[in-house]
């Protein structure tokens, strides 16, 4: 993946340094085969002859919408709809992946990811890498630990001493 820094909300942060974000995705579960199939087949079906926006993700082109490009609003709407349809477990039908999940937008994933890594590692730096931001931003916006979370994390680290013995 190669994403220009300007595509990110925090593109001026020192994390990017005015350079694109590059990430090599591992070929887990045949990912490369699925990507190739999407690019060489399904993507063209979604675009349906409309102008190609030159992005990896595209919307389905319909008679009412000939624009295959996502913008901030259409991406948010698609994310929320997918979450509602497939992510939230319906107690009556049993459909949906996650019991208790609430509708949310893509930005909430950033919050969950940063908070989870902070709780697991206690490292603002590691959390900042995960959300492509700076440790200062993570500390300011995501570092709201309860005292017992901090104590539990310290206890886990200290207990490793006894496991090695």
What would you say this structure looks like, in words?
The protein has helices spanning 31-47, 72-87, 107-121, 124-130, 135-141, 147-164, and strands at 2-3, 21-22. Helix 3 (107-121) runs antiparallel to helix 4. The chain is globular, with a radius of gyration of 20 Å. It has six helices and two strands; from the N terminus they run ββαααααα. With 165 residues, the chain is mainly alpha-helical. A two-stranded antiparallel sheet has the order 1-2. The longest helix has 18 residues, at 147-164. It has three domains: 1-70, no CATH class; 71-104, no CATH class; 106-165.
Keywords for this structure?
two-stranded antiparallel sheet
Global shape: globular
Report the major sheet.
2 strands, antiparallel
Q: Report how far apart the termini are.
A: 43 Å
Percentage of residues assigned to helices: 40-55%
Structural classification: mainly alpha
DSSP strand tally: 2
> Mean of the pLDDT scores?
86
- Please compute the radius of gyration using only Cα atoms: 20 Å
The percent range for strand residues is under 5%
The low-confidence runs, each spanning 5 or more residues with pLDDT under 50, are none
What is the helix/strand order?
A: EEHHHHHH
């Amino acid at each position: 993946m190669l994403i220009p820094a300007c595509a990110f909300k925090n593109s001026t942060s020192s994390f990017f340094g005015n350079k694109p974000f590059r990430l090599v995705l591992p070929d887990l579960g045949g990912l490369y085969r699925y990507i190739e199939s999407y690019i060489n087949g399904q993507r063209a079906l979604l675009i349906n002859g409309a102008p190609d926006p030159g992005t990896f993700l595209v919307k389905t082109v319909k008679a009412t919408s000939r624009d295959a490009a996502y913008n901030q609003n259409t991406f948010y709407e698609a994310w929320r709809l997918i979450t509602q349809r497939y992510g939230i477990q319906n107690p009556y039908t049993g459909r949906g992946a996650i019991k208790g999940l609430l509708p949310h937008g893509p930005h909430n994933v950033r919050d969950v990811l940063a908070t989870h890594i902070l709780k697991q590692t206690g490292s603002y730096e590691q959390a900042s890498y995960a959300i492509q931001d700076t440790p200062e931003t993570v500390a300011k916006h995501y570092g709201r630990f309860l005292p017992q979370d901090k104590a539990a994390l310290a206890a886990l680290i200290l207990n490793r001493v006894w496991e090695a013995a």
